Amino acid sequence: MITRLPNSHVLIATVLLTAIVAIPSFQAAAQDASVEKGTIRVTLLGIGAGPRGGQFDIQRPVGLQTSTLVEIEARAFLFDAGRGVLEQISKLGGAYFAKVDRVYLTHLHGDHNIGLPDLWLTPIRVPEGGRSVPLQVFGPAGTEEMARHIASAFEYNLFYNGNSSAASALIGNDVRQGIIYEADGITITAFDVDHSPANIASEDRVDYPALGFRVDYAGHSVAISGDTRFSENLIHYSEGVDVLIHEVGGGAGGGGAGMGAMGAMGAMGASGRGGHHTSILEAGEIFNRVQPELAVYSHFSRGTNQRLIDQTRSVYDGALLVGTEMTVITIGSSVEVIPGSDDPSTAVQPATGAR
Ligand SMILES: [Zn+2]
Ligand 1 centroid vs 112 CA: distance in angstroms? Predict the structure, then answer.
């Protein structure tokens, strides 16, 4: 266990937890592009929800959107590519321009894919060490078509720059629930979640495909919810997972789960079971059912951290992390967290009570 302890909330986390280790230095600099064998490294590149990236502040009307990088040994798997994804990747170091060549989209909303053209085109134009293979994009039905349209939209750019190499290809792949990647002990499983609009008839929900993903490697695992209302299928596929990264509704404008698990409404839109996001109390219930080593929020509204913690705590007493940009979670013999900021609300909230 790592025990550097310069401040009090980290001390508490380290003392009370057996498996979760908070490392109190902030992830800002480049990191080693190869991850220690036997561990999964997760970097929250962006955590902002919706068109404005979780911002409801006129002073800063838009923010970074959802994107999560999962690394195993020398491989990288990027989940979603919202606004700013490439800038965030570049903070990790130049090696990542070449390393990130596979993107998994949970669904085709702009806050999850608007960074895709940048991620596709820019890393083949860096002076050295850029991506030398096509960018592969995997996602629900419609992903292949979307990738094709993006490629034709930028045809002139490729023509002008004379980019006809393999690296300049953008390849979309529609995937369905099941194992979608299996190599060298790494398994990625896609599973259906439900992000259909509120009040849609259940027989029409098939027209709104959305996926969550689970990565398994060396006896360790992480699951990513994507955008979804409360999903029994997500709970099923998350069984035994070490880290569960879940979206949560409940915007800065009030509401949220204070109104009860079945009727919560947030500023992002309806977030109860009738809506298309998960309320805070519902997320707490999901964490309770799944019992991950560490429950993580990503994809939410700015300024709601303390409310997320307080309301989740009313139903869930396990270790909880409200994500922030550039938070690094390493999943090995223990789960280690390097918060992305010094705000205490972005540090690991240790488990309370006996579990
Ligand atoms: Zn979203």
Answer: 6
pLDDT at 29: 58
Note the pLDDT of residue 22. Answer: 66
Furthest-apart CA pair in the chain: how many Å? 63
* C-alpha of residue 82 to centroid of ligand 1, in Å: 9
* Structural contact between residues 281 and 35, judged by C-beta atoms closer than 8 angstroms: no
Helix axes 305-313, 280-290, angle to 10 degrees: 50
Question: How many A from CA of 101 to the centre of ligand 1?
Answer: 22
Q: What is the pTM of this model?
A: 0.88
Q: How many angstroms does the Cα of residue 210 sit away from the middle of ligand 1?
A: 11
Could you tell me the distance, in angstroms and rounded to a whole number, from the CA of residue 195 to the centre of ligand 1?
Answer: 9
Ligand 1 mean position to 116 CA, how many Å? Answer: 15
Give distance in angstroms: CA of 194 to centre of ligand 1. Answer: 12
What are residue 24's phi and psi, to 5 degrees? -85, 50
305, 310, 311, 315 alpha-carbon torsion, rounded to 10°: 130
Q: Where do the DSSP E strands lie in 196-288?
A: 209-217, 220-224, 243-246, 265-266, 269-270
Q: Which residues contact 288 (CB under 8 A, 6 or more apart)?
A: 315, 316, 318
**Gap between the Cα atoms of 165 and 161, Å rounded:** 11
Centre of ligand 1 to C-alpha 176, Å, is 19
Which of the four pLDDT bands, split at 50, 70 and 90, describes residue 264? very low
- Span 5-43, pLDDT tens digits: 334 343 334 334 456 776 655 555 578 888 999 999 999
d(CA 199, CA 354): 40
Q: Tell me, what's the pLDDT at 233?
A: 98
CA 2 / ligand 1 centre spacing (Å)? 34
Q: Tell me how far the alpha carbon of residue 137 lies from the centroid of ligand 1, in angstroms.
A: 18
